[in-house]
Amino acid sequence: MNQRHALNLFNFSKNYYSNVATKTLKDFMPSTIGDIPTSPSVTYIQDIISPLQRKVYIETYGCQMNVNDTEIVLSILQKFNYVRTVKTDDADVALLMTCAIRDQAENRVWERLHSLKHQKPQMKIAVLGCMAERLKSQLLEKKKLVDVVCGPDAYRDLPRLLEDMDLYGKQGMNVMLSLEETYADVKPVRFDEKSPKAFVSIMRGCDNMCSYCIVPFTRGRERSRDMESIIDEFGFLVDKGVKEITLLGQNVNSYRDVSNDSEENINGETQLSKGFSTIYKPKVGGRRFHHLLDQVSLKYPNVRFRFTSPHPKDFPDDLLYLIKERNNICKMLHIPAQSGSSKMLEKMRRGYTRESYLELVDKIKAIIPDVALSSDFISGFCGETNQDHLDTISLMETVKYDMAYMFAYSLREKTHAHRNYVDDVPEQVKKERLNQVISTFKNIIREKTKKFIGTEQLVLIEGDSRKSNEYFSGHSDQNYSAVIKKNQDTKNVKVGDFVQCKVVDTSEKTLICDFINLSSITEFNRTT
Ligand code: 5AD
Ligand code: SF4
């Protein structure tokens, strides 16, 4: 295989080539050419890439999945001779991993694109992620700020797009969504290798089609990574000293591995929480989220497991009892309500009512008595009345959340709400309602945090407190931030240690603690 041949193939057809992940070089060759190796064609791009090392500057916007996607992109690029730089001065190319969930998120990226272009006009810019998927060629056309556009399922093609830009000065785009891509074989390059915490994507996409949400359009259909590749990655992380793993997915607890047809594979319809429904047909077969959690929590008893972001429909009893039973599955569950009004929930197509949501909350609290709960809320969705808003406030006061992520509704094109409803709550009213929602949460959390005074907590040490190096900082099982006063006995304490400590005071959302002793998940639960 010579280089000229590879180059010809490389220019053969861009569209065809965007399937590099699944095609091999053989697929592109006339049958008269003898036997050629069958490794994926991406390796051949590597062969023709100049030995020059190129420097890539990266910024990530949006959710934790975007952070993990950035680590996947970096892993792909490293194989193609790119190295990361933290300075734009050094960079040949800047990558922006973007978010499209709300208008505000996109505006920040537009501002940044302008400032990068102004600061260093010769630097090439690639827009990745959800904005790339949503805006596609608009990004390339608008003010010529962007050179490459690459959607969430096309990262394997990014080296080719960048190479085309370098060699031929061509703008490039690949925004094809996939039914299969999970990047299961790509080991992400962790940005903070010293952190005892890691994030692993176990599924991608979302089939729920909540009426306000752009995600199903930017991230495509739901698909899960095979369990073996996930467990493999966990093993790698644990060997590196990781003590807390967060499983990630747009609807993480809808995980369903259908890759393995062994007897273990559980048949039958996916069990939903009582009182919940979906707009898609019930999914059948596969190993479910609780099967995965069961395996990994048993295998690594001294590693903490969290997961985000779940949907309330996917909390079957098996999962709740597993969480109760395993000391290393954190007792902090995210159950995004979005609204406390059944009328709004129906318009949002959430698949539950206020009553069925509250029934689920009661059940969770009954099965896992010490559980902490968090939620997302949207203020000012289409047609929301003051009474609907008050229903949200009363839901918050009833459940008493430990954490909440609160947003004003932002109309997204393409969504069901955009096509069918009117965005009729004035911006000022949205803001006022959002402020009331935020202050309701603040009042709840102040009281809740105080209740920890006098309790003992297991905290994973993540570093020194930002405010004072006389304290360590970390998080409790229920994800409360905690600071621990250093003293004579903490001399050997280091990042990645679990420590048992006593809460002596609180400040808004932080637990202020005294050190008791070094510990582990198993030890702590034996002694307390
Ligand atoms: N406007 C405001 N908030 C939104 N979210 C999703 N779409 C929108 C939108 N169009 C919020 C939801 C979701 C979280 C990730 O973002 O609360 O759970
Ligand atoms: Fe968006 Fe709903 Fe899917 Fe969450 S579950 S990503 S809110 S469509």
Automatic annotation (TrEMBL):
Residues 192-448 form the Radical SAM core domain. It holds the Pfam family UPF0004. Keywords: 4Fe-4S, Iron, Iron-sulfur, Metal-binding, S-adenosyl-L-methionine, Transferase. SUPFAM superfamilies: Radical SAM enzymes. Gene3D superfamilies: Methylthiotransferase, N-terminal domain, tm_1862 like domain. NCBIfam families: miaB-methiolase, MiaB/RimO family radical SAM methylthiotransferase. PANTHER family: CDK5 REGULATORY SUBUNIT-ASSOCIATED PROTEIN 1, MITOCHONDRIAL TRNA METHYLTHIOTRANSFERASE CDK5RAP1. Belongs to the methylthiotransferase family. MiaB subfamily. This is Methylthiotransferase/radical SAM-type protein domain-containing protein. It comes from Rozella allomycis (strain CSF55).
